[in-house]
Specification:
heterotrimer; A alpha/beta (373); B alpha+beta (91); C alpha+beta (377); B: alpha+beta; SH3 type barrels; 2 domains; 5-stranded antiparallel sheet; C: 377 residues; alpha+beta; 60s Ribosomal Protein L30, Chain: A; Phosphoribosyl-aminoimidazole Synthetase, Chain A, domain 2; 3 domains; 7-stranded mixed sheet; 15 strands; globular
Chain lengths: 373, 91, 377
Amino acid sequence: MKYLDEFRDPALARRLFDDIAATVTRPWALMEVCGGQTHSIIRHGIDQLLPPEIELIHGPGCPVCVTPLETIDKALEIASRPGVVFCSFGDMLRVPGSGRDLFRVRGEGGDVRVVYSPLDALRIAQDEPGKEVVFFGIGFETTAPPNAMTVHQAKLLGLENFSMLVSHVRVPPAIEAIMTSPACRVQGFLAAGHVCSVMGTSEYPPLAERFGVPIVVTGFEPLDLLEGIRRTVRQLEDGRHEVENAYPRAVPAEGNPAARAMLADVFEVTDRAWRGIGVIPSSGWRLSERYREFDAEHRFDVTGIRTAESALCRSGDVLQGLLKPSGCGAFGTVCTPRTPLGATMVSSEGACSAYYLYRRTGGARVEEVRSGG
Amino acid sequence: MCLAVPGKVIEISERDMTRMAKVDFGGVVKDVCLAYLPEVEVGDYTIVHVGFAIQKLDEESAIETLALFEKLGVLAEEFGDVGDRAEETTS
Amino acid sequence: MDDPVTGTADGPLDLGSWSCPVPLRDSPTLVLGHGGGGQLSAELVENLFVPAFTSGAARGVTGGAAGTGEGAGVLASLADSAVVSLGGARLAFSTDSYVVRPMFFPGGSIGDLAVNGTVNDLAMSGAQAAYLSCGFILEEGTPVETVARVATALGDAARLAGVTVVTGDTKVVDAGHGDGVFVNTAGIGLVPEGVDIRPQRARPGDVVIVSGDIGVHGVAVMSVREGLEFGTEVRSDSAPLNGLVAAMLSATLDLHVLRDPTRGGLSASLNEIAKASGVGVSVTESAVPVPGEVANACAFLGLDPWLVANEGKLVAFVPPEHADAVLAAMRAHPLGTRAAIVGSAVEEHPGTVVARTGLGGTRVVDLPLGEQLPRIC
């Protein structure tokens, strides 16, 4: 694919690796914020090929992972009801609630459908007027505009049988929460490129200034990730802490103004609980008053749900970068993608899942590759 | 978050009062909502996420970035580390 | 702490350590993934079906028929087809059910899949399919014309593969209790003298060959699946592989393993072979032929082409001294023109498949979990 394959070129990657190796003089801990970046790093073996001084800490940027247990339980409750068509992105189906998941609900007779786009859910609502169609509206700032547009269109079309269970989250408050955590070791951030495609870069300079950390807007292909790492390391070595854009082909400074305007209309900022982390002030979006009639939590009575998180799961620590997945006692034993204890193991973007999928091999092999160049 | 891929707009139409496009992802064509990119035209590349074009891909910038990678190391080989700072301005 | 390794390749995750016929760990009801060809499917077979079928007197009825005395029996060897002795002949025997949605897709239909799938399962033992049975489970209300189209496609495919349908069965279920047309076929064929092709026979040093472009069938079907539709020229690779296998056997009878990577894709097949043979498998990512359109469709859906189903491809483990001859024979056959050496069996990391990435790193290629779903994030 044009503008994708070029950014996987091994010869250019070698130049970036060499430049990073020539720049780094001491240990640095960087966090890639987005789960998609984690996935790509491990999928291509980038972390194995970096100089040993550079440690990548996997961030909380997986919306599936951080969706609160209570919201998952509400989804399961709604999806179980007769007459409901519950539509979701594929990644949410295996996320465990208190004891079951959406796959199980489907197996028990619930009408759970995987859609590619929220507009597909809207079409189902139009095609099946006798059903209550509910869309599970999760995601970061990248996914929020598509979901916002879908609710907006539902309102324009007067679709009374459509609603959305909204659990949107925002990146900047999460960065703030990570940096104010006492155990924080992060010295620089690779910011999530596609979040910035929508939001632009203006939210980040105050964070870089306040916490003295470089923040480099970074894409998802191997060369993009290496360029993000290269620039972050260079800043750290120079003692700078600026916001840089290493993904300019997809991120203009102002983001996408039309999308931001729609977000401001459809959503309002709210405190949001992040699974395994806790409530982060102002870190979420919910439907604004103008669209409250499309809020599934208002349409369906789902109060009084009792949640029960697995006591073993430390996905919260993983999400905050305090623990590597392999450092968790349950990793790979009690907790696997087949029987996940927490959401980081569930999503293909979740840090634990990425580790499980791509790194369950002998450490000797990794060394061999590194020395073999 | 945010699996988004670049694709080329090959056709634009209005549907249900919404600007829609057919976008070609290297031989795979998908309907995509253009509501957030009112200025995009046929032939432009866009970044697409869950059926929505969320940003126009700046082709010139993509080429510049790749050119910058091509130059890496070459400068160092010729001039030592001297030329390192200059390329930071290209973005 | 920083070492991501939780154990050796024989560590706590190995499903092989689950010897007891325990109930499925955490799901009292079936989920779709149990039929996805991944770990859930494997667990269902290993923990529920195999113990039920091989307990007590049943064990040994067919076990040892191949004369290997491996104890677990033919069934537990979990090959694409079973090889049994009957009246002095060595027969390959296989059955498969077809539930594809939609029934008609670019490049094929449930009718030709039902023939090619079973012919190919037999071919993976080195057998030429001779006879097929065919069972239809039809849903009340299905247009007769649809059934006729499926039957015609099935008949055409059988003629093309050189196999004869000799017995069949038809059932009709209440509306809503089926999905139009389900087909089951079973087939038998003779295994040539001197041929012993099984998932257990991979040896360190074996060369791994893939017969052509992977991921094609799955992408073709997804392109017309409700809710996912996308435009593409990709057409299913559904084809009978008995001719290709015959060509390979003409190069050498000493093929070690053949597998057709259907559900679960290339990743599942390589993992199954690595586990069955107790060898490691090392694959060079860039050597695996993935057509651009398949890669691109997978990119925007968030899928891995190595996990996508194929219906006209095989993966072969061949002793190194025969690899060139087998590869040449494959490339000379119309269904093997794009055949490629993609890796080798190794002594290291037994039971585990490791890929060398384009950048020179490594990653573990794991058995997929259940069905692949488009992911957004």
